[in-house]
Amino acid sequence: MSNNISGKYCIIGTGATSWGKHPGRSTESLNIEAIRKAISDANIDKGDIDAVLCKMPTTSPGLGYSLAIAQRLGLTPKVTGVLDQEGATMVGLVEYAIMCMELGQCEVAVISYADYPRTGPNKLAPAPSEVTPFGWLGAPSSYAMIARRHMSEFGTTHEQLGAIAVAFRKHGAMNPNAQLQKAITLDDYLARPWIAEPLRADDCCVVSDGGGAIIVTSTERARSMGVEKPVKVLGLGQGHPSWDVSYRETLTTSGAAVAGRQAFGMAGLTTADIDVAQLYDCFSIVPLITFEDYGFCAKGEGGAFCEGGRIEVGGELPTNTSGGLLSETGSPGIQLIIEAVSQLRGNGGERQVANAKTALVSNQGGIMQTHATMILSTEGPF
After folding, report:
1. Element holding 341 (H helix, E strand)
2. Alpha helix stretches (DSSP H) within 74-179
3. Does 307 reside within a domain?
């Protein structure tokens, strides 16, 4: 297997359901809808797909999930599997697909995720731990601890967290497929109730039913298939702090510090080369820390970096142009890849970033326990 794979593989198709409520739908049916749309977008035959890879639905896990999806598609794939890196899984599955292609085990992989945490029968419930009796239960309280620590160490302000929420809600208002399509002001943000102080309601991602899918193949295979507008994978990386928040040595550094170095190194790029970013934002503190760990600014300067419209469409680094998890959908990561591809194809509509050629995508899972990074581009020969 070669390490020199930058640009050797590409995304040729994307598809998604609507985001929000899908009462009565199964996770399998949501996956199949998204995959069919991705196949149509790529303009390929279903029979070209020889790998089916899925993230397990969080609300209804079960054995043989990707096998069930393959059967419902009418496929007998050479490669199939399910990966669990929580919110980092979707980029992790791109890596896995590429590894299998490098080994000659498959040529065209569909990667999908769908779930129904909002209306499904098996809604998410936080697992108790030894700190539960003290009120520390679930993701909001854990991310509140991270945000509070960042504020204590670096002087990060509520207004700086609010700048992130305002930007991503603004982008969601431009996105007809977003779950939340109403822009807010900073005053609106500051007037919202606490969920877990210092996090307010608009600091927390939405809860969404829905599904998304992408199709990955080699650039050589894409060329032979006559695919239009392939988006090349230039860099990939992973970094997983792994430990629970209550045991972690530091709360203000994420796996992006390791994953970002790997991805930028593989791509041969720096932060200055990124035109648009799609960063995991389950809570507003997450992209702030991710900007720091990727090197867009120094540690502790993430709050100031996000102010002044810098991360809005029209700013220096438009980020989460579809609204992200805070506005488009709380789905764990597939939508960020889909939006990156859309921007690089020039299909962003009202929220399109001018001359976007290179995009950065982050996926993160757990309480900043997993992280995966991907750099995509339309630059270079095809």
Report:
1. helix 334-345
2. 89-102, 139-154, 158-173
3. yes
Q: Say yes or no: 268 and 223 in one domain.
A: no
Q: Give me the half-sphere count of Cα atoms (radius 13 Å) on the Cβ side of residue 88.
A: 26
SS3 69: helix
Residue closest to 291 by CA, chosen among 164, 157, 132: 164
Mark whether 256 and 297 lie in a shared domain. yes
Q: Is 261 helix (H, G, I), strand (E, B) or coil?
A: helix
Spell out the per-residue pLDDT of the chain, length 382, in tens: 446 899 999 999 999 999 999 999 999 999 999 999 999 999 999 999 999 999 999 888 888 999 999 999 999 999 999 999 999 999 999 999 999 999 999 999 999 999 999 998 866 666 666 666 666 678 899 999 999 999 999 999 999 999 999 999 999 999 999 999 999 999 999 999 999 999 999 999 999 999 999 999 999 999 999 998 899 999 999 999 988 887 888 999 999 999 999 999 999 999 999 999 999 999 999 999 999 999 999 999 999 999 999 999 999 999 999 999 999 999 999 999 999 999 999 999 999 999 999 999 999 999 999 999 999 999 865 5
- Domain range for 13: 9-121+208-231
Q: CB atoms < 10 A from the CB of 357, how many?
A: 16
Given a contact cutoff of 8 angstroms between Cβ atoms, the answer to whether 277 and 167 are in contact is no
3-state secondary structure 45-76: CHHHCCEEEEECCCCCCCCCHHHHHHHHHCCC
What angle is formed at CA 45 by the lines to CA 44 and CA 48, rounded to 5 degrees? 95
